[in-house]
Amino acid sequence: MRLVSRQTARGATLAAIDADRWIDADDAVPGGPATMTELIEAGVAGLASLRDAATPALIAERGRPLDEAELLAPLPRPG
């Protein structure tokens, strides 16, 4: 699983990618980190919950094709 930021109508969101499909993090972990910044703030526990939920099987079943995602820089304001 790789993590990316993507653009949506509501702004930047966190998504998990496996192979050529992606799923929004908040679809995998409702109420969990929805952006890369929130994931960093959630620390190890936030990453672990996303890793456990966003399995390759879930992404394959419920994910969308990667070419439908408008990818952004991972962090909006690094540093």
Overview of the structural elements:
The protein has helices at about 25-30, 35-55, 55-60, and strands at about 1-10, 10-20, 20-25, 65, 70. By secondary structure, it is an alpha+beta fold. It is globular.
Number of strands: 5
Rg, alpha carbons = 12 Å
Q: What is the structural class?
A: alpha+beta
Overall mean pLDDT: 94
Cα shape: globular
Largest sheet: 5 strands, antiparallel
Secondary-structure element pattern, one letter each: EEEHHHEE
Distance N to C terminus:
24 Å
Specify the helix fraction band. Answer: 25-40%
Contiguous uncertain segments of 5+ residues: none
Query: Biggest sheet, strands in spatial order?
Result: 4-3-2-1-5
Oligomer: single chain
Strand content range: 25-35%
Number of helices: 3
Short description:
This protein has 79 residues and is of the alpha+beta class. It contains 3 helices and 5 strands.
Which structural traits does this protein have?
79 residues; alpha+beta
Write the layout of secondary structure elements.
Blueprint: E1 2-8, E2 11-18, E3 21-24, H1 25-28, H2 36-53, H3 56-62, E4 64-65, E5 71-72
Antiparallel strand pairs: 1-2, 1-5, 2-3, 3-4
